[in-house]
Amino acid sequence: MEANRRISDRFRSRYSIVLTQMEAFAASTDMAAARELAVHHPHHAISALTGATTTIAPAGTNSPLTFSGDRSLVNALQELFTTTVELDAFLARQAPLTQTAVPIHPSRQARLIPADGPLPYDLVALVWPSTSVGTRRTNEALIVNLLPQTAGDGQFQFTVQRSYALVQARDATDPWAFSQNFGITLEDQLRSGNLAPTERHHVVTALRDLRRAMLDAGLIWQGFAPRNMFLSNGVIVLIDFEEVVDIATAPARAAECLLWHRIFFADSLTPDEAQEIFANDDGAPQIPDNHALPADPFEKALLAVESVTWGQRRDLLMQSLRLEGRHNRPEQSRDNGTLYGHELGHFWGDFLPVAQEVRLFQHLSRLGDETTLVGCLEAFEAAMEADICRTIRLASTGDDRPAMRTDSLIEVLEAAGTAALAEARHSTANWYERLDTDPARLVDDLLFHLGTHVGGVTQETRDTYLVGSTQARDKHQADLIETLRSGLDFLHGREPEQPFLRYADPSALRKSIAQPLPQHGIGFGQVLAEVNDVLARHSIGQGHSRYLAFPDSGNALAALAGHVLSPLLNQNLIAVDRSAPSATFVEAQVIEWLRELIGYPTAPLTELRGVKDVSGLWTTGGHLSNHIAMLAALGHTFPQARKDGLRALDTQPAVVMAGPIAHYSHSDSAFHLGLGWDAVLSVDAEDGFTTDPKAVDKLLSNPPSGRTPFMVVGVAGNCRTTGLDDLQELANVCRKHGVWFHVDACHGGSLIFNKRLKQQHLRGIEQADSVSLDPHKGLFTPYPSSYVLFRQREVLTQFSRHEKTVMEDDCWDLGLITPFLGSRGFESLPTWMLLRHVGTDTLGALVESRQVLVRYLERRLDETGLFVRLNDVDFYRLAFVFCPPAVRRAVATLDPAGKTRAAKIVSSYTSRINTALYQAGEVCFDEHSLSDLADRVGAGRGTGYTIMAACPGNPLLTQNDLDVAVERLVEEALPLTQAMLTEISGNTTPDAPRLSGPAGWNDAE
Predict the structure, then answer these.
(1) Tens-place pLDDT, residues 653-665
(2) How far is CA 460 from each of CA 193, 442, 447, 469, 914, rounded to the nearest angstrom?
């Protein structure tokens, strides 16, 4: 390339870098062919090595061409092509124009055409906007008329290049302009220092004379820039006349152009030369500072305004002049120690979006320290070189990110700051050598260093906050062990007789937790201390011996270990490859185990074909499990809704359940899935708080007009009393009517682990179309852990839009079949570890042994005579109110209105007792609303009460624990009997207790 004068020095270096890099990966035969092509132009060698052929966009149809302009040039071009296809093919064979320091704006598609055949000399071809053609010709004539006869002390003449030809396809918007190639621009000649001092002086004075002539004529050529000028045999050739401004009619625009001229020449002249050209401003328009002008796109983005004053615009241009001038490098190794600012400004203006230009300008224009500014500019120079080299490499294949590394460096500049960027550049060894050999790697190293140290981040910082470094393992291990110890202290109690809760009023608790957003962190030990002293101190101990509200003890060793290990393994069950290779199959195995326990058909994991056979999934809780079951039932019954939505149905899909006992999640599901709350068809519950199969049969036989039941909800352990439906009878009813049968076994699901209890309480569950169950309720597993399971395989495939993929063998990406869940963790690990560690026999025994706890509590409460049970215990939950015999006798004497008032008093005193025990941290019972279906209190069948509920689910509870709980309950209740009687005999009605807990979110109320 040394002898190729059609390439600027800058591009010669760039081509050398790119070809050297490509040589390392090219076959020897390819390189031999590329070397032959490089003799003509290195672009052809690169195109050959990349296998690309063109960057010229086809003009469309193969239509004839129109020619105009210089006759001799037109004749030569007509010999080369007459149709658009020939034009496109011809231009595709040509190299891009690389005679300037910075590439021509990509919209111009500038090409270099060597002299060959009918062409008398090298040509340049580029696209002209069609709207500019007439203006250019007019402006050319204006400038010709004002050119001085001689200039530069009589040593030079000016000429306007008017010998060009326009070629345009009939259906093309813009023409191609062909003109003689004059070689290296005056800008590069001035920068290079190759002009002899005398010749350079004459050039400067000639430019002075031309500027003086424009001012005298009152016509300002906007393109007065050295990149639009060529020095050839004593003649300075001028090109590109898109705009000439008349000072008389547009003085502000003329003044702006005169400032732009200074910027265009800013880095190619010495200060004395600039003074020579621009000092005499006689005739220049004087614009008042407050003169208003429409804001240009850059000003709009920078200042967020629609108009600016002349003073603002002038100040911005002067800041640009400083940035784009000459700067002294710290070494002489490149360009004799000169950094050319306008070379950078030119690149930014042509290849950066305005928003990026603004971000860069905001940071660099503020810099007063020249050393810091030069460091930043040299970093962006390297980014520019890397981006241009990348564009060269991709020139034949297209590039939609021509300033990729510059964009990245702007991001880092904003994050790290100018001082850090300059320091990183100045501390980089062999900067200029690396810039000349591999600018991309130089910038990438800079970006990586700055990006990884942004905000003062160091390796010590990373080791302090992030787990994974071998050097920091001991410290992290100690911190995590201490964290685990804190958790175990909470489970076991840090002190003797520690309460299940240290109650704090919610407002006080908010104050103790409320803090400003932490800007600066504190030591991990301090964070853990805050957790222990505030958060854990005021957390509920659900595994505590006095915690009787829920069975959610979450204290199985293996399940706890799984919850600790799962985030450490950090698997993502959205996909098997690259996300969760073993975890995917663990979940599939757990689902098969649970299916087997329910009584569904099962298969060995090794015989499952893919996700189409995975007929269940983990969810965050029964609420979501029930949503998914309803969605599956809806899609099964109304498959057309999957594509066309509910609007495609001529009926309202409906869900049948027993309102007084159904969990709120089912009506929520109907609402959230777009069916509406009215889609819930409620039937009565039997006295034992179970669904009445006859009522379901009756409703299905004659549903309300306009509604089509598609799902019946049976309950295996409702959330209020854990009453267990007759699942077999409900299954028979659903089969009779062809309706999907779902069993909500979130509470009762643990019974499947005990064969005797399953046969006694869950007979028929295996006939359900879907089942939801919660290990975090009855299987001693920490939150969250729930599963929804389906009798028929392939049910979940309906949730994937990728119908073909999801049915393929060996497709194991669970994310394809998990509605509402995308990325999720290894949440089945706790259940898998629990089952592997304990086994179903022992789990079943633990579940059965737990029955003794609630039965014992039931008997002890009966013995006190102070409480009325609203249910007979089916499973593990006991619901009761404070209603001593004397109160019951008094209630029996009241009229209906009095009984209603008395029921509220019973609720009030029940809640009062429960609240006192709860806030003292002594005994925790649940509290929620419940209808007295059997009228055990005596205020009327179906009367609603606020009740206490006991659900002792922790097998570690002892007989003494339950005795103490009853004793404290009696101690709190007994003194209130007389006050309660007095209030019942009076006329006041207490306020109803606040709705408390999800078990009280009753759809029937």
Answers:
(1) 999 999 888 888 9
(2) 49, 25, 20, 10, 52
**Pairwise CA distance, residues 103 & 124, whole Å:** 14
pLDDT of residue 58: 55
* Residue for token pair 């800079």: 446
d(CA 432, CA 453): 23
Token pair listed for 456 = 């003062």
Residue 315 has pLDDT above 90, yes or no: yes
Q: What is the pLDDT of residue 410?
A: 97
Residue 198 sits at φ, ψ, to 5 deg, of -65, -45
How far is residue 281's CA from residue 258's CA, in Å, rounded to a whole number?
A: 9
What's the distance, CA 247 to chain centroid?
A: 53
Burial class of 842 by CB neighbour count within 10 A (0 to 12, 13 to 18, 19+): exposed
Please name the helix (run of DSSP H) or strand (run of DSSP E) that holds residue 120, with its range, or none.
none
The residue type of 491 is L
886: left (phi over 0), alpha (psi -120 to 50) or beta: alpha
Cα dist. 788→182, 720, 729, 844 in Å? 77, 21, 22, 20
* Tally of CB atoms within 10 A around 665: 25
Give the whole-angstrom CA distance, residue 406 versus residue 411. Answer: 9
CA nearest neighbour of 788 among 767, 770, 762: 770
Dig out the tokens for 416 from the structure: 């790290």
Task: Specify the pLDDT at position 1005.
Answer: 46
Residue 139, both tokens:
């402006």
Q: In angstroms, how far is the first alpha carbon of the chain from the final one? A: 88
Residue with tokens 């068809």: 681
Cα separation of 439 and 385, whole Å? Answer: 6
DSSP characters for 179-237? EE---S-HHHHHHHT-S-HHHHHHHHHHHHHHHHHHHHHTEEETT-SGGGEEEETTEEE
Nearest alpha-carbon partner for 262 in 347, 182, 320, 186:
320
**Dist. CA 807–CA 281, nearest whole Å:** 79
Chain centroid to Cα 33, Å, comes to 47
Predicted TM-score (pTM) of the model is: 0.78
Instruction: Report which secondary-structure segment, H or E, holds 308.
Output: strand 307-309
Contact 218, 142 (CB under 8 A): no
Measure the CA–CA gap between 770 and 739, rounded to whole angstroms.
12
Residue 1004: what pLDDT? 47
Residue 307, classed as helix, strand or coil, is strand
Q: Around 156, how many Cα atoms within 13 Å sit in the side-chain half-sphere?
A: 26
Give dist(CA 559, CA 443) in Å, integer: 49
DSSP-assigned letters across all residues of 919-949: HTTS-B-EEEEEEETT-SSSS-TTEEEEEEE
| Three-state secondary-structure class, residue 691 | strand
Q: In what order do the strands lie in the sheet with 867-869?
A: 867-869, 878-882, 943-950, 926-932
Share of the chain above pLDDT 70, in %: 97
Nearest CA among 66, 57, 126 for reference residue 92:
57
CA dist 398 and 391 (Å) reads 8
Q: At what angle do helices 829-864 and 959-973 cross, to 10 degrees?
A: 50
Can you tell me which residue has the tokens 């777009």?
A: 674
Distance CA 404, CA 397 (A): 16
**Dist CA 51 CA 47 (whole Å):** 6
Residue whose entry in the numeric block shows the structure tokens 């001035």:
190
Taking phi over 0 as left and psi of -120 to 50 as alpha, with beta for the rest, 803 belongs to alpha
Distance (Å, whole) CA 136 – CA 162: 10
The Cβ of residue 141 has, within 10 Å, a number of other Cβ atoms equal to 13
Q: What is the pLDDT of residues 141-185, one digit of tens each?
A: 999 999 988 777 788 999 999 999 999 987 778 999 999 999 999
* Number of C-beta neighbours around residue 464 at 10 A: 15
> pLDDT digits over 893-935, tens only?
999 999 999 999 999 999 999 999 999 999 999 999 999 999 9
**Closest Cα to residue 745, out of 762, 728, 763?**
762
